[in-house]
Design a protein that fits this description.
alpha/beta; elongated; Rossmann fold; 28% helix; eight-stranded mixed beta sheet; 6 helices; 2 domains
C-alpha cells in the first residue's frame, strides 16, 4: 500500500479509527507489525503493508459502553420478560438492539415506515405509518413498545411526511390500540423544556408525554442522565436539558 492510499484511508474512514490522534501510537503500529511477523510461524497470517488496517484509537478504550440504548433495551426487555404477554408489538425500535433482545424469548410484530429486507425467525414485519396504526383494532394489543422512535415522527428524516403533530397522533393511536391491562413502553429524549432539533429529533418535557397519554397510568419512569437512574422522579429535571444522552423511559398501563 502506498502512502497516498494510506492517507486516503485516514481521510475517508475517520469513524473506522484511522484518525491519527497520537503520532507515537502510529509509529508503534509498525513496530508491533514487525514484532508480530518475527514471532509468527503461519505463512497465511503474515502481515503485509498492503493490507494494513490501522486501528490506533482503541488502545485506551473501555471494554464496552453502556449507552442509553443499552439501558433502554435492557429496561424494556426485562419488563416484557417479567410480564410474559401472549404477544408483543413494536413501533420503530432498533432491530439490532431491543428487538433482538425480545426475540430471544418470544415472537415480535414490528411496524416501521421504512422497509425491511430481512427474513428473521420469530419476527413479523409491517411497513406502515405509526401515526394512525390503521388496521389495528381498538384495545387489541396487550404489550406495545416504541423506543427512541416517536421523537423522529413527522420530521422527514426517514422520508416520512412532514407533520409537526405526527408524534402526538402516534401517542393517541397507541392509547387506542392498547388493551385493558396492557403495557406500553416508550423512550424519548427528555429535558426541563420541550423543543426540536430539526430534522433529527424532538426533546420532551416528561409531563408532555404523560399528558399526551392521559388515558393511561404511568407505572414506571426511569432515565439515563450520564448514568442509569431506575425509578426516577420525572419532576426533578430542573436544569437538565438534552445533550445527546438524557433519555426517559416510560411504562404505562391501561386500566
Amino acid at each position: 500500500m502506498s502512502v497516498r492510499k494510506l492517507l486516503r484511508k485516514i481521510l475517508i474512514y475517520p469513524r473506522k479509527a484511522f484518525v491519527i490522534r497520537n503520532y507515537s501510537r502510529f509509529r508503534r503500529l509498525f513496530s508491533d507489525m514487525k514484532a508480530y511477523n518475527k514471532a509468527n510461524t503461519r505463512p497465511e497470517f503474515h502481515a503485509e503493508f498492503k493490507h494494513l488496517y490501522p486501528c490506533i484509537n482503541d488502545w485506551d478504550a473501555q471494554a464496552g459502553s453502556a449507552s442509553y440504548y443499552f439501558w433502554q433495551d435492557l429496561w424494556a426487555a426485562k419488563k416484557i420478560f417479567h410480564n410474559k404477554p401472549s404477544e408483543h408489538f413494536d413501533i420503530g425500535s432498533r432491530l439490532d438492539g431491543f428487538i433482538a433482545h425480545v426475540l430471544t424469548f418470544m415472537p415480535v410484530t414490528m411496524l416501521d415506515i421504512r422497509p425491511l429486507d430481512e427474513n428473521i425467525e420469530g419476527l413479523k414485519f409491517i411497513q406502515a405509518d405509526a401515526t394512525n396504526l390503521e388496521g389495528i383494532p381498538d384495545n387489541s394489543l396487550i404489550s406495545l413498545s416504541s423506543l427512541c422512535a416517536p421523537e423522529h415522527f413527522g420530521l422527514g428524516r426517514y422520508n416520512d411526511p412532514v407533520d409537526p403533530e405526527a408524534c402526538f397522533k402516534a401517542f393517541k393511536s397507541m392509547q387506542r390500540v392498547l388493551s385493558h391491562g396492557g403495557h406500553l413502553y416508550i423512550s424519548v429524549p427528555i429535558g426541563e423544556h420541550s423543543g426540536v432539533a430539526f430534522n433529527a429529533h424532538r426533546i420532551f418535557k416528561p409531563e408532555l408525554i404523560i399528558n399526551a397519554l392521559n388515558e393511561l397510568k404511568l407505572a414506571d419512569f426511569s432515565m439515563v442522565n450520564e448514568k442509569y437512574i431506575e425509578h426516577a422522579d420525572y419532576k426533578t429535571l430542573k436544569g437538565i436539558n438534552y445533550r445527546g444522552g438524557v433519555v426517559g423511559f416510560f411504562e404505562f398501563v391501561k386500566e
